[in-house]
Amino acid sequence: MVEVRTFGDGSDLQLIHGYGDGGFRVSRERYAGDLFLLPRQAMSWQVPADLDSLSADDLLALMGETPPPLLILGAGEAPMHPFAELGTALRASGVAFEVLSTAAACRTWNVLMSEGRAAAAALVALP
After folding, report:
1. How far apart (Å, rounded) are the C-alpha atoms in residues 99 and 87?
2. Superfamily of 2-123 according to CATH
């Protein structure tokens, strides 16, 4: 499990405190498996067996009625796929899209939250 330094206590922001071992530790709670984050909500989600089949509709459904302006996808160890069609579909819905390794996405998430940014993160668990 990798430990991540966070930006203080006392808020309801969903900060990532650790990742690895097949899950995440967010705001002091352990989540097994893949995770979808909004600034004040963490939920398990089912990643398709073939990550390339992930659709904008799958992700937009998790974001609620008013999607945040940014989604980061933590796509495992070292994502090699640009997810161009997914990015195009999300941008058409007003959501900017960034693909990172899961580790980089976790670090980026905490920075975004420390800056008060509206965002969502779809994170694939690391072994």
Report:
1. 9
2. MTH938-like (3.40.1230.10)
The residues spanned by each domain of the chain are 2-123
- Render pLDDT for 3-42 as a digit per residue (tens, 0 to 9): 555 445 546 889 999 999 999 999 989 999 999 999 999 9
Name which of 113, 121, 124, 125 is nearest 59 in CA terms.
121
- Pairing state of beta strands 120-123 and 35-38? antiparallel
pLDDT tens-place string over residues 64-108: 999 999 999 999 998 888 899 999 999 999 999 999 999 999 999
